Amino acid sequence: MEKLFSRSSRIAPELQKNIAIIIHSYLKDPRIKTIITVSEVRVSKDLSYAQVFISFLEKDDSLNVKKILFLLNKASGYIRKLLCKKMKLRIIPNISFCYDNSFFYGKKISSLLNQIRK
């Protein structure tokens, strides 16, 4: 009989919570001036890779997004090292950061629907 939840689906929310804490508390880069939200974490079946989806609470500026993604991907080794101390896992996944624009996309669709309604 198969388990209802795989191990990767149980570890993903814990990674999401811990990565958000690390970014807000321990990552002190003066070039990152915006609030970063970790919206989702997808972990591979063998727990060796994790895709971290982030979003920002300000306007969508593609140059700023690329810069912040570059800085976070450069700091992924440091974030992984801090995760080793916080989580008791045999394998800490390699982290790659991706931009999640679903909030702005949903906001745009909502405003279009409101215009149609009027």
At CATH level 3, the topology is: GMP Synthetase, Chain A, domain 3
- The span between the termini is 53 Å
Fourth CATH level, the homologous superfamily: K homology (KH) domain
Radius of gyration: 17 Å
Q: Strand-residue fraction?
A: 15-25%
Q: Which CATH architecture is right?
A: 2-Layer Sandwich
Q: Main β-sheet, in a few words?
A: 3 strands, mixed
- SSE string: HEEHHEH
**What value does the average pLDDT take?**
88
Coarse shape: globular
CATH class: Alpha Beta
Strand order of the largest sheet: 1-2-3
Helix content: 40-55%
Q: Indicate how many domains the architecture comprises.
A: 1
Which blocks of ≥5 consecutive residues have pLDDT under 50?
none
Structural class of the secondary structure composition? alpha+beta
Number of strands: 3
Number of helices: 4
Keywords: Cytoplasm, Ribosome biogenesis
Protein name: Ribosome-binding factor A
Family: Belongs to the RbfA family.
Subunit structure: Monomer. Binds 30S ribosomal subunits, but not 50S ribosomal subunits or 70S ribosomes.
SSE blueprint and pairings:
Blueprint: H1 7-25, E1 36-43, E2 49-56, H2 62-74, H3 76-86, E3 94-99, H4 102-117
Helix pairs in contact: 1-3
Concise description?
The protein is an alpha+beta fold and 118 residues long. The protein has a single domain (7-117), classed as GMP Synthetase, Chain A, domain 3, CATH 3.30.300.20.
